[in-house]
Amino acid sequence: MTSIDLNADLGEGFGRWRLTDDEGLLSVVTSANVACGFHAGDPATMRRVCELAAARGVAVGAQVSYRDLAGFGRRAMDVPPAELAAEVAYQIGALEVFARAAGARVAYVKPHGALYNRVVHDEAQAAAVVEGVLLAGGALPVLGLPGSRVLELAGKAGLPVVTEAFADRAYTDQGTLVPRGRDGAVIADPEAVVERSVGLARSGTVVARSGARIEVRARSLCVHGDTPGAVDLARRVRERLEAAGVRVEAFA
């Protein structure tokens, strides 16, 4: 039976402001990418999400990003590699405190936003992320886009690598994500998202923005937590995957 992990970005709030329905999504997904304070997520939020995830048996992942609260981690930044490595390790370490207190652990690392897209091609920034993961200790898996520099370097460093696909994002013919600022970058039709999810899990392919069918082999599928109606959409995706004979389970 084909199997796939279902992940979502969680804990993306700060203080009294909340963006994601963490409780609802944690009843559906198998892995939680928890914001670690640099693009969203304060200590109380991180603690709460870790406790909820641990209680539900959902894997906890560190969603590391550039230090960009105002821009939600989606603005391009030039951070010196040594500084970026330290900041990645810092974020992982902060989340690990709350994960362990909840009886869990940080099970993997996933870059967020601008950092995620940057390390697809940028050698220096990708190497800094890998260095940060190693600095945090342990052989944590790195979750990222198939064919990205960060996964290549992580593998060379002895870290497990996990490929990821996005059911609600448009792809270029090269297998990269269409930038969010462009029309059609986010797939708004829920039924289209569900169908793409099944296609990615069953055949490892998706229709790119140009109309060409491209290969995207992934072990994990992301459903964005900040999408309107995210919980209902995630539930529909999981139900359709299971109905198609796909086992939904955490990779970590």
Automatic annotation (TrEMBL):
It holds the Pfam family LamB_YcsF. Transmembrane segments: none annotated. The keyword ATP-binding applies. Keywords: ATP-binding, Hydrolase, Nucleotide-binding. The keyword Thylakoid does not apply. CDD domains: LamB_YcsF_like (cd10787). Its EC number is 3.5.2.9. It is an enzyme of class 3 (hydrolase). It catalyses: 5-oxo-L-proline + ATP + 2 H2O = L-glutamate + ADP + phosphate + H(+). Belongs to the LamB/PxpA family. Catalyzes the cleavage of 5-oxoproline to form L-glutamate coupled to the hydrolysis of ATP to ADP and inorganic phosphate. Forms a complex composed of PxpA, PxpB and PxpC. This is 5-oxoprolinase subunit A.
